[in-house]
Amino acid sequence: MPAQIYHLIAFLVAAVVVLWTIPDVKKFGIKNGRVDKPGGRKIHQHPMVRLGGVSIFAGTIISLLIVWWLGGFANLPPEKEWQIWGVTFGGMGFFFIGLADDLLNLSPFLRLLLQVLIAIGAWKAGVSIDFVTVPTIGIVNLYWLSLPITVIWLVGMVNAINWIDGLDGLAAGVSGIAAVVMLLVSLFMHQPAAALIAAALAGAALGFLRYNFNPAQIFMGDGGSYFMGFTLAAVGVIGLVKIPAFTAVVLPYLILAVPIVDMSAVILSRLRHGKSPFIADKRHLHHRLLQAGLSHRLTVLFIYSLTLWVGSLALAIAGIPSGVTYACASTSVLSYAIWRVWKLSRQS
């Protein structure tokens, strides 16, 4: 079976499982009162079930199990097998942390402690940033710095995706776009195992948009955002960061630039105003766009265009055929979106 067929199967199976299971998850959440009530910083006006991450997790895992059974992960070297297990079990760990928070409302300290422990386990399994490639210098081994840098990357991306999950369809769409770009880049970089995981996650995230795009019928909750954030970060490590080329090393950070920059800007803003970086407020990009007069949908679509733009830059930098064409096309889309945002903000 051609390798590309496995990636198509992974994408389609994940999407179908999500679309098939969401109605039952929604019924379960309503029946058991597992809903997110409006108020405070929250944009939604009615109680919403926040267990959609169960379907995202199930769709991704079932998809990967089917691909494994069909032979999609065959003939991997031992170190790659360990990395795949690290991504899989690490994703499970982060999903269950988020699900526990959705159900039991864990304290911030306990959440962070559990996240760090799971990230250390993933690092031990080989999901590790072991070196950086510096132009004119070459490969620089990180040695003992590998552990803290990897943990910061994994835990940071988990929370970055979680923090942008503030509007209908935002986190799912951004994650889906990023996963598709990682799929294409991983294939081009001859990293088929990482590409399979990216394909499954892309199918699950984009399938979830059927029920999560504005007006949303269900939220993914922390279980979904934690799982997607970790999986994206981990695929970036095993599929790109481990390739000894400067362009490959920087690609994950470029592909995920939107949530990274948003989280960094919010933390700096809170510190500058003398507030804790972990206390929620309305300093995120999507909050600022809403305050500027954009509608809910246009805000989400604008952030999609940003994500698509940085993703197309990653395609061009990776050297993918027609990557420059994609970058030019997405630049045109982003330019139009910026013009619309400017025009609406002037009218408000």
From TrEMBL:
Keywords (alphabetical) are:
Cell membrane, Membrane, Transferase, Transmembrane, Transmembrane helix
EC number, as in UniProt: 2.7.8.-
Annotated compartments: Cell membrane
Domain of life here?
Bacteria
- Report the transmembrane regions from the record: 6-22, 51-70, 82-100, 112-137, 143-163, 170-189, 195-213, 225-243, 249-268, 298-318
Enzyme class label: transferase
Entry's InterPro entries? Glycosyl_transferase_4 (IPR000715), PNAcMuramoyl-5peptid_Trfase_CS (IPR018480)
Molecular function as annotated in GO: transferase activity
* Organism of provenance: Okeanomitos corallinicola TIOX110
- What is the protein's given name? MraY family glycosyltransferase
As given in the record, the signal peptide range reads: none
Membrane-protein topology: Multi-pass membrane protein
- Keyword Cell membrane assigned to the entry: answer is yes
